[in-house]
Design brief:
By secondary structure, the chain is mainly alpha-helical. The chain contains 6 helices and 3 strands; from the N terminus they run H-H-H-H-H-H-E-E-E. The protein has a domain of about 140 residues.
């Protein structure tokens, strides 16, 4: 009898890179008013870029294969990027905001915070740079005198925040929230007359 040879057909799988949508950010008990650039710290104003340069893409390390099967989840992608360097001050501001605002949150929650900040820079209602958004007076409670408190840069929380900043700025993963511009902690109820988009982790997001 003739024996039929069975050929195994392998199909390579690609990690899904979904274009990221906008998100949102706000201090828990303060609805952000119009941008007051004259109140921004001098260091932030000096770091502001032109409108066409408001958001500068991160350099993804060449060793990171964002389309590899290993990056099939957000956790895997964060692990791939956790040793990446921060290329500029804008990256530092975004990672710092994620660290202080959401380091105890799930990775989805951290990504939502990062996307919120980026969404503000594109909205026309807030400063056009990440540092400008984060350092805008009366917006983020962790900002003191136009700067961040000390960061434990050897910690896993910081490495995760750096990875989330890379992912958000390069639209490498879709967030659980879309176009929000504001959020507050669940423990407060500011009574905003805004459209609620989602509740994720310790934050509630609005447009």
């Amino acid at each position: 009898m003739l024996t039929a040879a069975v050929a195994a057909l392998s199909i390579s799988s690609f990690g899904a890179l979904v274009a990221f949508g906008p998100a949102q950010a706000v201090w828990a008990n303060e609805t952000p008013g119009p941008v007051q650039s004259d109140l921004l710290p001098k260091s932030v104003v000096e770091q502001a870029q032109t409108e066409d340069q408001a958001i500068t893409d991160f350099q993804i390390p060449e060793t990171v294969e964002t389309e590899s099967p290993e990056s099939a989840s957000l956790a895997d992608l964060v692990a791939d990027l956790s040793s990446a360097d921060l290329p500029d001050r804008e990256a530092e501001c975004l990672a710092g905001a994620v660290y202080f605002e959401a380091k105890g949150e799930s990775l989805d929650g951290q990504l939502a915070v990062a996307q919120t900040i980026l969404n503000r820079t594109r909205s026309g209602r807030f400063p056009e740079t990440v540092c400008g958004v984060v350092m805008q007076p009366s917006q983020f409670s962790f900002v003191r005198g136009g700067s961040f408190p000390p960061i434990k840069r050897t910690s896993r929380n910081w490495k995760n925040a750096v990875a989330i900043a890379h992912i958000a700025r390069n639209d490498l993963w879709a967030s659980s929230v879309d176009d929000a511009l504001y959020f507050h902690a669940r423990r407060v109820n500011p009574g905003w007359n805004l459209r609620k988009i989602a509740a994720l982790g310790n934050h509630v997001f609005y447009r």
